[in-house]
Amino acid sequence: MAERHLIPVSGGKPVSVFSSDLGWAMGTNDIIALFGYMGRHSADTLVGKNLDSAGLSWEEHTIDSGFQIGQNVVSADIDGNGTMDVVAANRNEQVCWWSNTDGTGTQWEEHLACEVADWVECADIDGDGDVDLALASWWFDTMLWCENVDGNGEVWQDHQVDSSVIGAICGNPCDINSDGYLDFIGLACLNNSLYWWENLNGTGTEWADHVISDSFVHPQAMHGEDIDGDGDIDVAAVSGDEGDLVWFRNDDGLGGSWTQFTVTHFQLGLNLLFDVHISDLDQTGTWIFVR
Ligand SMILES: [Ca+2]
Ligand SMILES: [Ca+2]
Ligand SMILES: [Ca+2]
Ligand SMILES: [Ca+2]
Questions:
Q1: What's the 61 CA to ligand 2 centre distance in angstroms?
Q2: Is the pTM of this model over 0.85?
Q3: How far is CA 71 from the centre of its chain?
Q4: Distance 150 CA to ligand 2 centre (A)
């Protein structure tokens, strides 16, 4: 049985957390927590916590105390200067990023990237070497991405992937058909469907949609990872209403055929599963996290 460690936070219940080395203690991963629409409707705060090498000592830092109704938070080097920056989306369809200006995690400068989405993940969608934003918008039923035009996060151009995703959440970039081009996975919560979109030419300007499942009730989150260790990307998903955690096997390694397996069923009541992530924390196998 794994040992459990509690990381105390002063801001109530975080709506999204992410791990990244923000530079407070070099070489150790910090935790970023976003406080959003659950329990905190004012003075929403983005905080990071400093970790010692054993993960037992934490210090709280505020990155921004004015980011309202946050939805999710991630981290990547948006301006390409070698420091890990912070990116978050909120339910006002705003996607902001904070530059870690001196690389120590103590000085942050806020930038508005776009106002078209409420879910963000970071990846080099067009393969030109800089970090772009993979986006989903519940409000606009759209999956899209924003191109980091000059590579320093100052100028962004949005590109549509699919504008008919009813109840879109979670645009997660991963290479489903193993051709070297980053594809998208995402879900239509109100259509009970999970999809992937194929990045046809590798530049993110042409996409083809493919169904993973059209009968998964009210999906809330999904994440791509090689769950069975056979070299291709599979997909884990959670249903908030049903309390189901499942994974879909990428049968042919090309995203053309999927088989659903149930991991577990949670007796949690309604709407209590919000997120799923996959990681090999201890190099002994794959762990699936839900929240
Ligand atoms: Ca940076
Ligand atoms: Ca790019
Ligand atoms: Ca691909
Ligand atoms: Ca696999």
A1: 30
A2: yes
A3: 10
A4: 9
